[in-house]
Amino acid sequence: MVGAKNLIVGGGISGVTLARKLAESGEQVLVVEIKNHIGGNVYDYRDANGIMVHQYGPHIFHTNNKEVWDFISRFTKWRPYHHQVQGLVDGKFVPIPFNLNSLQMVFPSALADRFENKLLDRFGFNKKVPILELRNTDDKDLDFLAEYIYEKIFLEYTIKQWGVEPDKIDPSVSGRVPVYISCDNRYFQDKYQGIPLDGYSAMVWKLLDHPNIEVKLKTPFSQSIEYERLFWTGSVDEFFDTKFGILPYRSIAFDFLTFDYPQFQEVSQVNYPCNYDWTRITEYKHFLRDSSPKTTISFEYPTDFQVGKNDRQYPIANADNAALYTKYLELAKDLPNVYFFGRLGDYKYYNMDQAIARALALFNKVKGVNN
Ligand code: UDP
Predict the structure, then answer these.
(1) Residues in contact with 116: Cβ distance below 8 Å, sequence separation at least 6, in sequence order
(2) Of the candidates 141, 166, 181, which is a domain's last residue?
């Protein structure tokens, strides 16, 4: 019979971070991963043209958490990279998040200046204002501007991405991409930002490269595997055979295309908030400055997650789903030595750094370390 002191189900960034920490503390770890590759949704590979492609869409590492940055930087060197995104609005490619430069691009300058002054007076320079908050001022100009941004940037994108309007999903979701009262065109302002120089998959394999870690790909969880502790990074409903019903997620269908010319678009990511059925197009060679006479891009078509048909990509943050998740979590409380974590296990829209921070915190909890 196969066995391990620690059984980790799922080889995504959460599972492999915990695996590494446990292994370094002297414990034996078995990681089982149902797919034929490691890394979960951060998995990447070089395609036939030598371009590093992110199989599950664009992943940009960014964090203000020095502990996380220092930890993960032991396993990769970085290409310093500051993500810039454009959105096609009224026929123009404007910076996203919508900022003071975007404002000047879409309105005549006198009007843009008036809006800019009002934004600066009301919120101050370099402030990030969630669109749902901007829609709540009592100023006529700001109200007009908020409606414009809401309609042109958020409304249709969010309907495509989530299947509902922005106010039907937790405000933290649209709040991830606030209106930015600034001329800074970057998508993130974190202190540490980059793309792993040899890719995410290489970084993940380096995390797993430890004598106390065994990895089994194409291996589902099975009760026949013996363990003292079980760490589950899959969806919590699956662990309990969906007895209270299926926890909903959004999935993405990716359409990859390669063209016989060197560049498709100016930046790695262009959003299409009000045109077409896709949400965004990613051109991968920008991330690591891969040089090739060809280029590879992906279109993203969001869709509902269906068991056995596609992958879980995004937990859907609303009150009903939170209640269903909590019901499962109540069951989990009665299980000794079983832990749920990660984007699916916690049912939280984690960024990569948050997933790592959560795994580090879980390690401390399990080992009784207080910090
Ligand atoms: N969003 C939007 N328009 C955009 C970009 C983002 O409406 O051009 C909203 C949308 O609801 C999206 C959310 O903000 O799901 C979070 O966007 P983010 O870029 O963080 O999504 P991710 O990269 O995680 O898919």
Answers:
(1) 100, 103, 104
(2) 181
3-class state of residue 43 by DSSP:
coil
pLDDT of residue 167: 86
* Structural domain contains residue 169: yes
Q: Is the CB of 158 under 6 A from ligand 1?
A: yes
Distance 183 CA to ligand 1 centre (A): 20
User: What is the pLDDT at residue 334?
Assistant: 86
Q: Does 101 lie in the same domain as 161? A: yes
Q: Give the domain extent around 267.
A: 45-84+249-314
Atom of ligand 1 nearest to the CA of 158: 11
Residue 33 is part of a domain; what is its CATH number?
3.40.50.720
Residues 160, 97 share a domain: yes
Same domain for 297 and 173, yes or no, is no
* pLDDT at res. 4: 73
Q: What is the DSSP letter of 163?
A: S
> Is residue 271 within 6 Å of ligand 1 at its C-beta?
yes
130 lines ligand 1 (CB under 6 A): no
Q: Is the CB of 96 under 6 A from ligand 1?
A: yes
Determine, yes or no, domain membership for 89: yes
pLDDT of residue 223: 87
87 lines ligand 1 (CB under 6 A): yes
What residue's CA is closest to ligand 1, atom 13? 174
What residue owns the CA closest to ligand 1's atom 14?
174
| Cβ neighbours of residue 283 closer than 8 Å, sequence gap 6 or more | 263, 264, 265, 267, 268, 269, 295, 296, 297
Nearest-atom index, ligand 1, CA of 87: 8
Look at the chain and count its residues: 371
Q: Cα(167) to centroid of ligand 1, in Å?
A: 14
Q: What is this structure's pTM?
A: 0.97
Q: Which atom of ligand 1 is nearest to the CA of 174?
A: 14
Low-confidence ranges of the chain (pLDDT < 70): 1-3, 371
Q: Do 97 and 163 have their domain in common?
A: yes
Measure 230 CA to ligand 1 centroid, in angstroms: 33
Same-domain check for residues 67 and 155: no
Q: What is the pLDDT of residues 278-306, one digit of tens each?
A: 999 999 999 999 999 999 999 999 999 99
- Indicate whether 135 belongs to any domain: yes
CA neighbours within 13 Å on the CB side: how many for 17? 28
DSSP 55-97: TTS---EEES-HHHHHHHTTS--EEE---BEEEEETTEEEEES
Based on the structure, what is the number of domains in the chain?
3
Same domain (yes/no): 227, 98: no
